Every structure is written in C-alpha cells, then in structure tokens.
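Priority: medium. Attachment 1 of 2:
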C-alpha cells in the first residue's frame, strides 16, 4: 500500500512551472553573498575501491534527518578537487542557500566527490560511485533510499541526480551510460562523452545503455548546458544534435512532456563563474517527475 506520508496526488503531473525552452539567466549578484539561512557543508572521509578519499556534503538549511531529500552529486573539472565547488572561487553553496530560501529550489542534498585518487579517472569514477560513494553518503544522510542495497538505491533513482563540469561533464556521461539503474537525472556541463569516433557513435552508445536499462522515456532526464564561447561547445553540440535524432529523447526543458534539453549561454566561456549559473538554472527542473509515484510497500 502507499505510504501515508506520500499520498498519491489527485493530479499526477507536477505543480512545478516548467518553461519549454528555458534560457540562461544568471542568479542575482546577491546570491553570491552569504545567506542568512545557510546550509551546512560536512567534509566526509570514506574508504573504497580507490583507497581513502574525501567528499563534501551540502545539507540544506533546516536539514531534518526525519525527512527525505533528493540528492544531487556534482563533479569538479580537471585539475580541481572535491573542495572546488564549495570554495570561495565558486560559492555554489551560497547560490543554493538563496535559491532554497527564496523558494526557487526545493531543499536537497548536494555532494561533491572527486575522481582524483587511487586508480580513479573521470571515465571510471562511476564504479566507485556505485560501490562506495552512494552507499556511504546515503546510509549516513536521509535520502529516498530506504536502504543502500543495490535494490534500495535503484528503487530511489528518481530522486537522484548526477552532474559535472568539464572533465566532470565527461564523468556525467559515463555515469549515465553505466548507472541508469541508480540515477534518473543528469546534468553534463561543458563536457562531452568520449566514445567512438563520431557524434553518432556517442549517441548510439547512450541509446544502447538506455535499451539495456529497459527504462521508459519518462524515467531518465538530461539537462545539458554550456556557453556559446566555451571550448566544450564545439564537441558538445554535435553530440547533442545526434542525440536529438534518437527516439529515446523528446527535446524540451518541460520535463513533464520530454526528457532532454541543452542550454547554451550566449557569450559564456569555460569558467565556473558562468557554470555555477547553469546549475542555478537547471537544478530546479530536476526531481519533479513521478512525484505521485512514491514507492508502494
């Protein structure tokens, strides 16, 4: 039966007001300042297949372990580490704090791991993510995973996202191809998928992963972004165009109707100073689908 905590909504569609072709809009300048309702960043250390590593966990203001939270894993770029995104250089935590305080973003947990360390690479991080990172984080913090068994993680996939910038964008595509059973929402930022020899090869590899997963088009969502002057644009755009041609994707930022979108910020270059605003634009579009479809026990 359905849990009393999550009654089945009479109207199964989300109340979130999507735009069908959302445009780049940077967060207000004030969002880079400290927020009176600030979340907490906890540094955690864990040991896994690539040895002992650390990651950061952003807990939203008023985090309550008795509530369930959506979770978004966000990967840094090359030459960076797990501390970059919540540093004074990027200040993503301030943007999250203000967006949550002002009702633009539902409170969620954001985790910044790293592909540095051991035999880990941007391409194979998904292995550590599956085996170590998700179970470690989600056994300690309250997400929709009722357990951190593979079954428990898979059952809560509609409440889990993964994104990343630059080499972390590359990681995001590899997570998509290898972890569709665990993750429903993907945010590749200024990074393409390194596979095969053509954009078509990349798209076909993604399509094959979706075919293997057995998921419907209402069960995976991709919100990609970059800048028109970003060095990544030249490689991302042909891949996006090849993906648009696949029957697996319906192109719109209204995720109540489709599942794939590419935001291009006019004039923006390959820099966190822009990319943090893509996250501000994209993250509110995550985690609304199947809100009515909570797990029946």
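Attachment 2 of 2:
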């Amino acid at each position: 039966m359905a849990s009393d905590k999550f009654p089945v909504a009479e109207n199964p569609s989300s109340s979130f007001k999507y735009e069908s072709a959302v445009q780049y809009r940077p967060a207000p300048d004030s969002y880079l300042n400290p927020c009176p309702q600030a979340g907490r960043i906890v540094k955690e250390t864990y040991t896994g297949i690539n040895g002992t590593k650390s990651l950061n966990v952003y807990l939203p203001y008023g985090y309550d372990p008795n509530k369930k939270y959506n979770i978004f894993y966000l990967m840094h770029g090359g030459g960076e580490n797990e501390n970059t995104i919540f540093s004074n250089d990027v200040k993503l935590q301030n943007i999250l704090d203000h967006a949550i305080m002002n009702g633009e973003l539902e409170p969620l947990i954001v985790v910044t791991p790293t592909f540095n360390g051991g035999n880990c690479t941007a391409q194979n991080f998904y292995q550590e993510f599956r085996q170590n990172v998700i179970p470690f984080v989600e056994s300690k913090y309250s997400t929709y995973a009722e357990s951190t068994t593979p079954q428990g993680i898979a059952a809560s996939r509609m409440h889990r996202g993964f994104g990343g910038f630059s080499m972390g964008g590359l990681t995001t595509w590899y997570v998509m191809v290898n972890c569709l059973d665990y993750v429903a929402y993907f945010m590749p930022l200024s990074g393409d998928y390194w596979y095969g020899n053509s954009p078509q090869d990349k798209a076909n590899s993604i399509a094959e992963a979706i075919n293997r997963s057995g998921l419907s088009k209402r069960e995976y969502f991709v919100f990609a972004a970059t800048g028109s002057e970003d060095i990544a644009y030249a490689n991302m755009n042909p891949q996006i165009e090849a993906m648009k041609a696949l029957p697996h994707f319906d192109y719109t930022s209204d995720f109540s109707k489709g599942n794939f979108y590419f935001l291009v910020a006019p004039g923006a270059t390959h820099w966190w100073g822009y990319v943090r605003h893509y996250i501000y634009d994209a993250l509110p579009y995550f985690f609304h689908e199947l809100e009515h479809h909570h797990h029946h026990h």
